[in-house]
Amino acid sequence: MQTPNFEQSGWARVDISAPAQARIAEEFAAAGVAIETLDISDYTSGFSEWRTLAEYGGAYKSYAGDLDYCVLEKALEHYLSVVVAGPKSGMTAVDIGSCQSVVPTILRRVYGVRCLEQDLSYPAGVHGDRVGSSADSIPLADGSVDFMTLHCTFEHFEGHADSGFVAECARLLGPSGRVVILPLYLNATHCNVTGITDPSARAQVTWDPDAEYFCEIPEWQNRFGRHYSVRAVLDRVIAPAWRAGLHVRLVKVVNWSAVDPNLWLRWMLILERAPTAGSLPAAQPNAPHELRALLDEVRGLREAAAAQAARTETLGRRIEDLIARSPKRS
């Protein structure tokens, strides 16, 4: 399509207020799409522990400059995605759009998960734990992934990469696999936004031909963002997921002000290989994450020490046997 005309109306076309989001929920209900609710106030205790993880005290602390609530938003997204994903030692995960994220480090250190980091900016192919690719063409084996996480990533997928990623989820997920996308940006209208002000640079972006509004927001400083209308997310994401055999869970987030009133997490999307019975996972864990990680490390050291002691005992018996069988000197 030709480069569209852009409004310079800031965020006026995007409404994340509670009344606007309630109307979106009504549209889904009218379309026959079930909605679950996640109350942030039920998760504040676990999130308070999560925020003490060492990964949030280093360079990542300056992620958004002086805007502390931006770091809170990211940390909350990370925490909720992990609660929903239910990581266990030995699982394989992929963090999509992972550049500079602390999630892979946390999943490896605290949970013993093999976490791959996928990002379009990485060199193409699989290099150790890094995967360079578009999200709609990930060079991993069919059924090789237990879960995937996306934090402020999905909205940046240009063209049909969002629908293509859904197809990749169906290919990559194992029998009990799931994908956690948050935030899922939903709006009264289908909007494309950009921080690009140079028309020649904007011409390189793939815009949605059916978007209702195109908004230039220079201070946002991102190439492309998509805010879905109900119709757009049904057509581009939910219906393709159903056709691919995935189970869709649409989650409305409420009481975000229990953490900070400035947060923008309103919706989550969970795609599952098999349907999950019951409600969303309860807040966890009961013990602080750091303590649990240390206990796991101590357990590993004890197991290693026991194995070493067994090897030492075996070696000692072999030496004694060799001495007993060797010729005695007069």
TrEMBL record:
Q: Which residues form a coiled coil?
A: none
Alphabetical list of Pfam families matching this protein: Methyltransf_11
Q: Which SUPFAM superfamilies match?
A: S-adenosyl-L-methionine-dependent methyltransferases
Source domain of life: Bacteria
Q: Name one GO molecular function term.
A: S-adenosylmethionine-dependent methyltransferase activity
The Methyltransferase type domain extends over 95-181
List, alphabetically, the InterPro entries matched.
Answer: Methyltransf_11, SAM-dependent_MTases_sf
This protein's name: Methyltransferase type 11 domain-containing protein
